[in-house]
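4.2 Preliminary Data

To establish feasibility before requesting continued support, the project team ran the inverse folding procedure on a target of 296 residues. The structure was first converted into the token representation described in Section 3, and no sequence information of any kind was made available to the design step. The complete token record follows.
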């Protein structure tokens, strides 16, 4: 039996309008990713393209308002996942072979194709000498974007910022680059009046204390890094956590909330920092595999 449901013409017009917007976003995102790869991978002889900044993409008054007051209206931003694994062109974190993931329910089939010792040494080859944070921010601004969210730390544990709690970082003596990428993007976003946010993975397949009998030491480690990020980089508008499960107790989320409230009271966060009884709701829901129009 075939069930037919008639819909008003206005419904289809709304769908077409929505699809057109999504396609435009995808096209613009592709252009920006090309720009990012251009500046991270080309030689020093390449000249920077002249990208004009559009007028009135956001006003100074809007930029200086608390993020909580304007987040619903920002709509359009740039989310960047980037790290040493780009040297071999594999997926960030998930391509890293991990015995730990085999022990975690639901992740046993995501072992990863890159041997751990190879993946973990890629940062010694990662030298994006043509990375230009200002060019990225200027391009984002010219395309009408209102914010940038960048990977401070993904699940592989590598830190794109100058943390004092590990040497597995972009500023390590073992890194040929040795420049703080988060610092550069934070400064560029401030210059072009773009909101700046950070993605931070609570799960960490590199840290030896993570999900072991010494997990409490990992809690201290990650919370110290959150303090660094919310203290050393000026105004942070968004923290975008990733946790792959775990309860409020697993992440000591109440302490985490106190840290965030104390250091950046206007910060907004997503919901991925503890589940189950005592769940602390975030300011917005982060949908990984679909659109979420009505729950932000």
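Position-by-position output of the design step:
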């Amino acid at each position: 039996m075939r069930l037919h449901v008639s819909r008003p013409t206005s419904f289809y017009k709304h769908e077409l309008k929505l699809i057109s917007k999504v396609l435009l976003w995808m096209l613009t995102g592709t252009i920006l990713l090309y720009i990012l790869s251009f500046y991270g991978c080309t030689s020093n002889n390449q000249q920077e393209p002249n990208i004009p900044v559009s007028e009135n993409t956001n006003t100074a008054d809007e930029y200086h308002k608390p993020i909580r007051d304007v987040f619903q209206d920002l709509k359009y931003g740039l989310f960047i996942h980037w790290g040493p694994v780009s040297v071999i062109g594999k997926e960030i974190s998930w391509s890293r072979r991990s015995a730990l993931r085999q022990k975690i329910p639901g992740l046993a089939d995501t072992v990863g194709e890159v041997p751990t010792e190879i993946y973990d040494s890629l940062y010694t080859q990662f030298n994006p000498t043509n990375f230009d944070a200002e060019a990225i921010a200027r391009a984002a601004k010219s395309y009408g974007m209102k914010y940038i969210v960048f990977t401070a730390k993904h699940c592989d544990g590598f830190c794109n910022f100058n943390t004092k709690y590990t040497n597995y970082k972009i500023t390590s003596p073992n890194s040929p680059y040795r420049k703080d990428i988060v610092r550069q993007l934070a400064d560029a976003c401030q210059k072009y009046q773009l909101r700046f946010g950070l993605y931070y993975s609570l799960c960490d397949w590199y840290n030896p204390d993570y999900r072991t009998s010494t997990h409490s030491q990992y809690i201290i480690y990650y919370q110290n890094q959150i303090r660094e990020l919310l203290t050393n980089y000026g105004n942070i508008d968004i923290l975008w956590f990733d946790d792959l499960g775990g309860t409020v107790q697993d992440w000591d989320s109440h302490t985490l909330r106190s840290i965030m409230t104390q250091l950046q009271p206007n910060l907004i966060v997503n919901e991925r920092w503890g589940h189950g009884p005592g769940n602390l709701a975030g300011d917005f829901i982060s949908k990984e595999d679909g659109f979420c129009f009505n729950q932000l």
